[in-house]
């Protein structure tokens, strides 16, 4: 739908007209007038900010009024209306999301708005907005260059500075290039307060990155998980610590304070760069396994018995999501642009390049088996980038899908957590029985959703089909299931060279 003055809720299809003037002051004032509880404003209602709002609204050691703020655009305005109308804008397999949302609605301590007036009422402001890397890649995933544009981030921080109290605590959770809090956010807030003739010595600014893991442990990845934090000075770090103690189970998951915001910002991008490098490392070994007749999954399982190697990665279709696809590049950009280094982080960049081309390899893997894909009916099981969550941002399934379309294939999509694939503007089926009753030529398992692993219906429906080729990119099937499938169909698994 190309109606840019409307915002459509992909969960229930409801349309909202975006008002030309946003004025929720009366609503915000009524919301705050209920009690004298501290006000937490979360800037950004995406996959992190929306769930962070729930965690704050259900604080362990405190009581807050929580206001989520996002822009009045076609991609975000529906989230605001949805939260206020009783439909949480994130679908995931974690039952705590619904429990926390229902609890917040019953307590009446959660509100969403597009009005920047909310910042003027905040005691604590949490920044959870996007910060993208502009990756200049060709159609086949070859990364040629990249850049980081801080314009939107600076604008978001400026809006806070133009409205906030002079003694506010601002906590940046957004993954940013190391140096951003100190060199970018801090000066903007000071300049804004100066312009407003307010004190520049009372506000606190800190950084504490989240490790949000969409899926069955969505809430716990915020509330019951280790957290690293810092501040631009001791007072700021102390204020961040006091706040985090109210929303995180610190007895079981102690907080870790680092020396400055450069350190916590580096910790986040280093952590994700390490994971991205780990995946890139597994890529070439999966190719070796295929060439040498080895089941890499059982090899990795054997190695994982050693406590020091439990995070060795499996093969797959590729890397997706908001962090691993860009964070190594953020770090390299910061090294050169904010700290004036002459050298990039070459290994980190190379890891991203390898991971970006994984979907192309999966496509070529399929083409080796099925030379002509034109008019072939292909079912993709899973479009989200990660199991058990409806998050399609930078999903590796997207380039894989585009390669198939370019080759003339006819694609059917299924995902239990996605009804509408926003990036591609296509519908996605959620009834597995229906899609597997189609007359198919190829089935590709592209996301390792638990329901695919646990469902016997999938195997039975596959066995009822005729002359299928099955490509398993995530190691879904065990040996017994593979043998059953082989009795009737052809099957190949990325990272396994032991299947003839």
Quickly describe the structure.
The chain has 500 residues and is α/β, with parallel strands linked by helices.
How is this structure best described in words?
The protein contains 18 helices and 19 strands. With 500 residues, it is α/β, with parallel strands linked by helices. It has 2 domains: 6-262, Rossmann fold (3-Layer(aba) Sandwich); 291-315 and 357-493, NAD(P)-binding Rossmann-like Domain (Rossmann fold), CATH 3.40.50.720. An 8-stranded mixed β-sheet has the order 5-4-3-6-9-10-11-12, sandwiched between helices. A 5-stranded parallel β-sheet has the order 14-13-17-18-19, sandwiched between helices. The chain is globular. The mean pLDDT is 93.
List keywords for this structure.
39% helix; 500 residues; 2 domains; Rossmann fold; 19 strands; 5-stranded parallel β-sheet; alpha/beta; 15% strand; 8-stranded mixed β-sheet; 18 helices
Q: State the CATH topology of the largest domain.
A: Rossmann fold
Q: C-alpha Rg, in Å?
A: 24 Å
As residue ranges, the low-confidence spans are: none
Span between N and C termini? 46 Å
Question: Beta-sheet strand percentage?
Answer: 15-25%
Shape verdict: globular
Reported for the largest beta sheet, the result is: 8 strands, mixed
Total separate domains? 2
């Amino acid at each position: 739908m190309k109606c840019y003055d409307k915002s459509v809720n992909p969960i229930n299809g409801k349309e909202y007209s975006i008002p030309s003037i946003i004025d929720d002051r009366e609503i915000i004032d009524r919301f705050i007038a209920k009690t004298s509880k501290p006000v937490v404003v979360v800037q950004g209602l995406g996959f992190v900010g929306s769930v962070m709002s729930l965690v704050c609204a259900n604080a362990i050691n405190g009581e807050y009024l929580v206001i989520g703020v996002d822009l009045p655009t076609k991609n975000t305005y529906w989230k605001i209306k949805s939260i206020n109308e009783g439909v949480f804008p994130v679908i995931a397999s974690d039952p705590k999301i619904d429990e926390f949302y229902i609890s917040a609605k019953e307590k009446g301590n959660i509100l969403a708005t597009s009005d920047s007036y909310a910042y003027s009422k905040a005691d604590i402001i949490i920044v959870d907005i996007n910060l993208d890397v502009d990756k200049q890649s060709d159609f086949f995933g070859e990364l040629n260059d990249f850049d980081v544009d801080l314009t939107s981030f600076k604008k978001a921080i400026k809006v806070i500075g133009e409205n906030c109290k002079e003694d506010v605590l601002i906590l940046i959770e957004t993954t940013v290039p190391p140096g951003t809090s100190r060199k970018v956010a801090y000066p903007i807030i000071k300049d804004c307060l100066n312009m407003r003739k307010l004190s520049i010595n009372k506000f606190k600014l800190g950084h504490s990155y989240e490790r949000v893991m969409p899926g069955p442990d969505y809430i716990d990845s915020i509330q019951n998980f280790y957290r690293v934090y810092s501040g631009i000075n001791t007072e700021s770090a102390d204020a961040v610590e006091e706040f985090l103690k109210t929303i995180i189970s610190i007895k079981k998951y102690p907080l870790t304070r680092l020396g400055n915001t450069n350190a916590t910002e580096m910790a986040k991008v280093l952590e994700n760069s390490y994971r991205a490098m780990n995946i890139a490392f597994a890529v070439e070994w999966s190719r070796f396994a295929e060439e040498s007749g080895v089941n890499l999954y059982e090899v990795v399982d054997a190695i994982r018995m050693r406590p020091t190697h439990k995070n060795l990665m499996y093969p797959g279709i590729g890397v997706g999501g908001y962090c691993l696809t860009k964070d190594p590049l953020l770090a390299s950009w910061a090294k050169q642009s904010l700290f004036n280094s002459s050298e990039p982080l070459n290994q980190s960049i190379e890891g991203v390049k390898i991971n970006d081309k994984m979907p192309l390899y999966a496509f070529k893997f399929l083409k080796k088996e099925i030379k002509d894909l034109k008019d072939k009916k292909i079912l993709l099981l899973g479009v989200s980038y990660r199991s058990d969550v409806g998050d399609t941002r930078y999903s590796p399934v997207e380039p894989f899908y585009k390669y198939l379309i370019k080759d003339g294939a006819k694609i059917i999509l299924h995902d239990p957590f996605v009804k509408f694939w926003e990036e591609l503007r296509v519908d996605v089926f959620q009834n597995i029985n229906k899609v597997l009753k189609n007359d198919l030529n190829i089935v590709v398992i592209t996301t390792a959703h638990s329901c695919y692993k646990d469902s016997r219906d999938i195997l039975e429906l596959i066995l009822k089909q005729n002359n299928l080729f099955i490509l398993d990119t995530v190691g879904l099937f065990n040996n017994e299931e593979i043998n059953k499938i082989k009795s009737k169909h052809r099957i190949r698994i990325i990272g396994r060279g032991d299947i003839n």
